[in-house]
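re: ur question from earlier - yeah i can do the single chain one, its not a big deal. heres the input i used so u can compare w yours
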Amino acid sequence: MLGRSAFSVFAVMVCISSASLVHAENRVLAEVRFVAHNRAEKTAGVWVDGQYVGYVKELNGNKKMLLLPGKHEIVVRQPWYTDYVEQAVLEPGELHTINVTLAKDMRVVPKGATGELKISATPDRAAVFVDEQFAGHVNEFNGVGKAMLLTPGQHRVRIALPGYLPFDTVVDLRPHQKLKIETALARGSITEAGALVSQN
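and the output i got, formated as tokens:
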């Protein structure tokens, strides 16, 4: 009987220690939250220190963004909008809120874009890069009335998401041609995918 009681006390102490450890770890990290006001801002991609981490509306709950204290460059990017850039100095345990504000940038709309590219890929929250520029997310280019308009000619397309190996291909579009890419990203380590999803 005494042995069972001692074991119960030990188990409770281990649980308390584990909970304290998790709590202490969360106090060391800083949390970043995003406030978005419209669809463009909610579906914009997020880069931290040059690495793509996901899109605004998914970075909450169990996918919330926890960063080490210190200075970080946080960029929110959406095609046809000017980038939102913030240099954040984060303190341990801080809750840092980023109020995303994106403004239209008509200078980047391609002229003579008559080719259409549809993309079907899993996971559909993966980011799409065309000629090394962020173009949006897979789910924006698949379905009725959804396609990416591109100028005729060759374009390098990359589909990438942290934790997965990126998919790379080259498409050669003719004027008014419609193409579709279909793929499923293979799981990989964050280190394998990370360097390949950078903003540069």
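The longest helix spans residues 2-28. not sure if urs matches, ping me
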